[in-house]
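Lab notebook: predicted structure, single chain.

Context: the supervisor wants predicted structures on file for every construct in the current expression panel, including those that have not yet been purified. This is the next one on the list. No modifications to the sequence; it matches the entry in the shared construct table.
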Amino acid sequence: MGKLLDGRYQVTQILSQGGFGRTFLALDTKLPGNPICVVKQLHPATSSSSVLLKAQELFEREAKILQQLGEHPNIPRLLAYFEENKEFYLVEEYIVGKPLSAEFLIGQPLLEEQVITILVELLENLNFVHQNQVIHRDIKPDNIIRRSLDKKLVLIDFGSVKEVTQKDNSSKTLIGTPGYIPVEQAVGNPRFNSDLYAVGIIGIQALTGQMPQELPRNFNTEQILWHDLAKVTPELASILDKMICHDYRDRYQSAREVLEDIHRLIWSGQPGPVPTQPSPLPTQPHSLPTQLIDAEPKIKSPQKNNNSLVMIGGVASLVVLAAIGGGVIFSQIESIPNPKLSLNGKILDGFLTEQDKVFKKNSLNPLAPSDHQIFYYKDYYFKGNQGQKISIEMTSQQIDPSLKLVFPNSVDGVENDDISPSNPNAKIVVDLPETGIYKVIVTSSQPQETGSYQLSGKKL
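Prediction complete. Output recorded below exactly as produced.
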């Protein structure tokens, strides 16, 4: 403890250690405030000069890959890398948060809507990784961090730099965690859709509340038999089944393909078509290290009330909302999630960015240019009482606002019908049909709009 690495990084804590080296928490003594960072020591198992030379070559290549991947907001940035005393070090951004595994409790399945949200976030991250010719190879809940700052999922620990630490440099190295790796990866031939298998397993784990190794299998086909253990729609089950096919040739071929089918499910309630021609995969993938550590409470729902909706003044129009971002159905929650919207007229300032959640309005049309399908959005929550008349208003000088209100435990809701590029506001006025937690979706009426807005709600 207290050791100074590269004359700069002061070690304060050992986070983990194993055959490949150790991972430390450290202070960067050359930056104002001495910010915390993560330092990974990679220790080759032999002092052979030829092995050390090869290790250095692989280390530098992997460091450059990590540097490139760190440009994504949900992948830790590589801050520095160096060699000292024939040991190699990576310095990475410290992510404050808790692993996704903290949200997965044995015997406590998540709701389908929660699982869809997790899948979309992971697949968006993974799509970026694969576009950079990298296979992660060790995707599991412990390697996914729910960042405290914004509750986004951060993909960590790319791992393949561990290859340089193996004693037998001539043999293929198995990287991955049993239960999350498919057969081709287990025999040393990982592919891009090996990562999709892992994400599919995570989805099934979340829906069943069971660890992957405990799920029953068909011994003849190796198919995982999980449908009877989960409350899941046939559409989502179909998507997950395709993600975890035993034969990689039968799986989705890219993260983008899975996302397209999930978006079709969100907006239409129907599964997307199975592609007849697999999308081309990136060629000559690299494989790769990374990091650390706060989760959200489990959510439950009260009973649904079937009272009818009352509209006021034609300001709101009835719609059926496929619950974007939140999943197929929005569950009622015992406590109000963040961010909260107070019905006291207080104005909240917000900003839609390219890092927010996304949905595709035109995803049912596979020929529509994807650039024109993307809409960014944020969610807000409030508790409302049956019969309460409320008003929700969004204004902006930078985007054309659009509002949607989703009822508790339902896909029903209302959206403003006053959408015009020349009108800088959106407004919903409604008598609430039931008591429960409502979700307000803040977005724009035009694709790919980003900018500031103001949001307020009040009782009338």
